[in-house]
Design brief:
The protein is mostly helical. It has one domain. The protein contains six helices and no strands. The longest helix has 34 residues.
């Protein structure tokens, strides 16, 4: 039986988290990221115990990730070899990390979370900036020209099938 007592959340907080994670799940399924990095700070803002928030977030990530991966698998956008090469070490590392959570102080967990979010944000921004500059260069646009001319009227064109055929992740 699942013990909800260490969660110490009000009914209103649980309803808010349910609605929030539903909306987040739609976005996560589209972009292929479980978005626990977004969910966890919200749980911490609601003053959840960091260790309980981390464990609960991982449980939600498992369920959401499994559900979101099914349509991607069905459409041929999952490379099994890459899942195994990345997934098996992640399982071992997660087991080790999860077993030491009770030994870590709350400030250490919060510092690790903040550091990982900062690093992830910087990497994502740099990738966006490089892609933006590359699109501008392809179109011969200068930095001061209207950015809206870069957007495709039909949305994003993904080339997942060619990446899967190549057997890996590529740009």
């Amino acid at each position: 039986m699942i013990d909800l007592s260490p969660l110490d959340a009000s009914t209103e907080q649980l309803i808010f988290l349910g609605i929030f994670t539903f909306a987040l799940g739609i976005f996560a399924g589209m972009v292929g990221v479980a978005l626990g990095a977004v969910r966890l700070p919200v749980m911490l803002t609601l003053r959840f115990n960091p260790a309980v928030a981390a464990g609960t977030n991982l449980g939600v990530t498992i369920l959401g990730g499994a559900a979101a991966s099914w349509p991607h698998w069905r459409e041929g956008r999952v490379v099994g070899r890459v899942v195994l090469v990345i997934g098996l070490p992640a399982i071992v590392g997660s087991l080790i990390g999860g077993s030491y959570t009770d030994d870590a102080r709350a400030w250490m967990l919060l510092t690790l979370i903040a550091s990982l979010l900062l690093i992830s944000s910087v990497i994502t921004f740099c990738q966006w900036w490089q892609a933006r500059r590359a699109r501008r260069a392809e179109r011969g646009l200068s930095e001061d020209q209207n950015a809206s001319t870069l957007d495709s009227p039909r949305g994003v064109k993904l080339q997942a099938r060619s990446q899967i055929q190549d057997g890996g992740i590529g740009w």
